[in-house]
Specification:
The chain is of the alpha+beta class. It folds into 2 domains: about 1-40; about 65-195, no CATH class. The chain has 2 helices and 11 strands; from the N terminus they run H-E-E-E-E-E-H-E-E-E-E-E-E. It has helices at about 5-40, 115-130, and strands spanning about 65, 70-75, 75-80, 95, 105-110, 135, 140, 145, 155-160, 160, 190-195. Strands 3-2-11-9-10 form a 5-stranded mixed beta sheet, with no helix packed on it. It has a 3-stranded antiparallel beta sheet with strand order 1-5-4. A hairpin with a 2-residue loop joins strand 2 and strand 3 (about 75-80). The chain is elongated. It starts with a helix and ends with a strand.
């Protein structure tokens, strides 16, 4: 083979290698640009009801159990509970949650702390990703307002007696609506009824 022909073949091989390298580099650059664009253009899934740290974690283990019962009546009709607020996306349970739509709240916590009715509404609003669902105080439940001197009223009873703590009501440890839900004796009754008319 002549020297000139060898040089032509080597030159052609080098040119094809450069061309493949440039093509590969262009493809990699385009793929990286597409992935970066997808990350920035992907909608962010931010929850409209942020939770404090003591409510936003999965519970592993238990310091105590409590099972207060909550009934909500709005304009004469029982308000339905969704089946499982207080359950994180991956299925783990938060400190206050439900197992069904009965109104029995399950406080199963790995922290030795008290929880309030306001904490429950906050978790419910977070679960629903709806700030209105998180509202409960002495003048409003959800989007139902009962301002002082208005035509609507909002009342709360605990174990049949009027209670004006509303969202500040602290769930007692070892509460249970029945002895079957009592973890240790003695059971503490905590039957909460919220009525909006």
């Amino acid at each position: 083979m002549s020297q000139t022909r060898k040089q032509k073949i080597l030159g052609e091989v080098k040119r094809k290698r450069r061309q493949r390298t440039l093509t590969t580099l262009a493809i990699v650059t385009v793929l990286i640009a597409v992935m970066v664009a997808a990350m920035f253009l992907q909608p962010r899934s931010t929850n409209l009801v942020p939770l404090p740290d003591y409510l936003s974690h999965c519970v592993y283990g238990s310091v105590y159990h409590s099972h207060p019962n909550l009934t909500i009546t709005i304009n004469g009709a029982n308000f339905p509970f969704p089946p499982a607020p207080g359950t994180v996306d991956n299925g783990c349970l938060q400190p206050i949650h439900t197992h069904d739509a009965t109104g029995v709240l399950h406080i199963e916590t790995d922290q030795n702390r008290d929880y309030s009715l306001g904490d429950w509404f906050l978790l419910w609003g977070h679960w629903a990703n709806n700030p209105t669902t998180a509202i409960f105080n002495s003048t409003q439940i959800f989007d139902h307002k009962a301002p002082v001197g208005g035509t609507h009223s909002l009342t709360m009873t605990v174990n049949g007696s009027p209670d004006n703590k509303f969202d500040k009501h602290v769930f007692p440890h070892n509460a249970a609506p029945s002895s079957s839900l009592c973890v240790t004796q003695p059971c503490v009754p905590d039957n909460i009824v919220i009525t909006y008319t």
